Amino acid sequence: MRKTIQKNDPKTMNAWAFYDWANSVYSLVITTTIFPLYYVSVLEGTGIKLLGLSHEAIYSFSIGFSFLLVVILSPILSAIADVIGNKKMFLKIFCTLGSLSCAGLFFFTSAETAYIGLLCSIFASVGFWGSLVFYNSYLPDIATEEHHDSLSAKGFSLGYIGSALLLVICLAIIMMHSSLGLEESFATRICFLLVAVWWFGFAQYTIMNLPKGNANGKKEKNNIIQNSYKELIKVRKELFKDPSLKNFLLGFFCYSVGVQTIFYLAVPFGKNDLKIEAETLIIIVLVMQIVAIGGATLYSKLSEKKGNKFALQVAIGVWFLVCILGYSINPEYKNAEYIFYLMAALVALVMGGIQSLSRSTYSKLIPNTNDTTTYFSFFDVLEKIAIILGTFLIGLMIEQFGNMRLGVLSMALFFMLGMYFIRNFKK
């Protein structure tokens, strides 16, 4: 017998949004600020090459590889989750993998243990993004369409608040390491443990209060793998029947190449190309998190008044401007740092908005079905392929030209393509 999840239950919706509070510390501390800077500080000047590549390039490629793993795993696991009606089990598995991998970064202490840092960062990324496949798919299950924009924005806002709070704590530990009787390296690695505890600990509230998922009563469970492949084929066919859904996904893929690549490599760009001090970069990112809280809410309100399509076009236009500014920065100009600050301010205004609107727009476009996990796996796979393409492109640019500026400019092309498809998206 099929059991349907009750929609618009306040406790369930709050528990769902709270997972953003739990997991966003990984995104800020590990992928954006402290770990990339720590990675550079450990390997900078060592001349070490991994697989014959510079440490900067191998870091970019490792990010792409982690997403390749998610691309391979998530569709079939999502289909299995829909068949057995238990997406929560997979959410728990990936959450645990991600948080334990963050804890493993504590053991990355020198150039000799760089492989530990890279492996743990890869598996932390798999855990984070893998869990989001199942987490995002709950949105159309637990809320009716009129709540999708506001609930998605609430999740991102909680994520920005929680991650900013932990970043402040981490900064305090690092800056006061002498007073605490700690070496700076050890204090930094403690932050990786804090991320693991925060992510896993706060995620328990979400896991305890979310339902298992909608069981698909049409499927026989005695051949889960076979039925899961049938589920994938069925959903893939449905995705390309609707022209609006197809155009949205094509646009989403194109602009995600730029958005996610800039997210991942902004701090290394500021550190390596512009020689901005690590402390300054972290403060910039912290301020961006605070501004982004308002940005996510602002775009939710804009979509209410002008529609999701208009709000997405505005955000894409701002991202295009960021790419042009990034390329225009000459590290030798004395005002180069201030252009980077302007870029950061623009990104802060739109980074939460474009992510939140993408998630809620897709949840409105997919059919009213119990196969939400499978539908969202395609959404997430497109995003991961976009990141693979973007990070590998930047990695090649670094190897070829020795800096990221041309790579940043190349992202503008993807925003132009994204704008084209979103303009042709009818709903």
Note down, in words, how this protein is organized:
This protein is mainly alpha-helical. It has a single domain, classed as MFS general substrate transporter like domains (Growth Hormone, Chain: A, Up-down Bundle). The protein is 79% helix and 1% strand. It has 15 helices and two strands. The chain has a two-stranded antiparallel sheet with strand order 1-2. Helix 4 runs antiparallel to helix 8 (184-209), helix 7 (148-175) packs antiparallel against helix 11 (278-306) and helix 7 (148-175) runs antiparallel to helix 13 (336-365). The longest helix has 31 residues, at 243-273. The protein is globular and about 55 Å long. It starts with 9 loop residues before the first helix and ends with a helix.
Q: What's the helix count?
A: 15
Termini, distance in Å? 34 Å
CATH class category: Mainly Alpha
* Proportion of residues in extended strands: under 5%
Number of strands: 2
How many structural domains does the protein architecture include?
1
Mean pLDDT: 83
Q: Spell out the CATH superfamily.
A: MFS general substrate transporter like domains
User: Which regions have little confidence, pLDDT < 50, spanning 5+ residues?
Assistant: 217-221
CA-atom Rg in angstroms: 21 Å
The strand line-up of the biggest sheet is 1-2
CATH hierarchy: architecture: Up-down Bundle
Oligomer: single chain
Any idea of the CATH topology? Growth Hormone, Chain: A
Largest sheet: 2 strands, antiparallel
SSE succession? HHEEHHHHHHHHHHHHH
Helix content: over 70%
Q: Helices and strands: which structural class?
A: mainly alpha
Tell the overall outline: globular
